[in-house]
Amino acid sequence: MTDVASPASSRVARRRDRRKQQIVGSAVRLLAEHGYQGVSVEAVAEECDIAKATLYHYFSSKDELVGEALESVTLDVLRRLSARSEAAGPGAVDRLRALIDEQILILVEDTPEVAPIFAWPAGWPEQFAEPLKTMRRRHNALFRAVIEDGLADGELDCADVDVALHCLHGILNQTAVWLPGDADRAAGRAATTACALRLFTSM
After folding, report:
1. What is the pLDDT of residues 136-171, one digit of tens each?
2. Key word DNA-binding present in the record (predicted)?
3. Domain boundaries, the chain
4. Angle, in degrees to the nearest 10, between helices 92-104 and 185-197
5. How many CA atoms lie within 13 A of 195 on its CB side?
6. Could you report the per-residue pLDDT of 180-192, keeping only the tens digit for each?
7. What pTM value is reported for the model?
8. Which end of the chain has fewer CB atoms at under 10 Å, N or C?
9. What is the DSSP string of 128-143?
């Protein structure tokens, strides 16, 4: 016979999940503002308005919390990029354009905390060096897969994918610094996307 969770236990689980998401979200914001060294368990607990001891019911250490915060940000970004790429259709140019535009939206408008967290170098301790590299590789792989598909079918043209990808991410990471204000932001995003696409086309 299959065990079925009671409504009370389901409510407790949902409440626990919400609290955990709140803690992770606060950790992400503090990481963006202050970097790894500026984040403490006490600061996260205070922002969440919970006791430090309560936070330790969810995470055993600062590093465990930071690791989950990094993974949460990575998964959110990858989900958004993947969904946008799939919605763009099969063409490599359209998919790449969608990826670039979505990345700008993420970095500039929707979740600007992503950029400082994954900036390089960012003063992270050694134990996070490899996880951060892995997260960047997972992100880069989405763009690379679309570009390689486009090169294979002749829709894209690029002499050196690695160099072009480095240039692309440089463009994306700096966009928030100079993109116009709200009134011109959509036009600025479109112009930036069009210029970035030229790294991979002969148009």
Report:
1. 899 999 999 999 999 999 999 998 999 999 999 989
2. yes
3. 7-197
4. 140
5. 14
6. 666 678 888 899 9
7. 0.85
8. N
9. GHHHHHHHHHHHHHHH
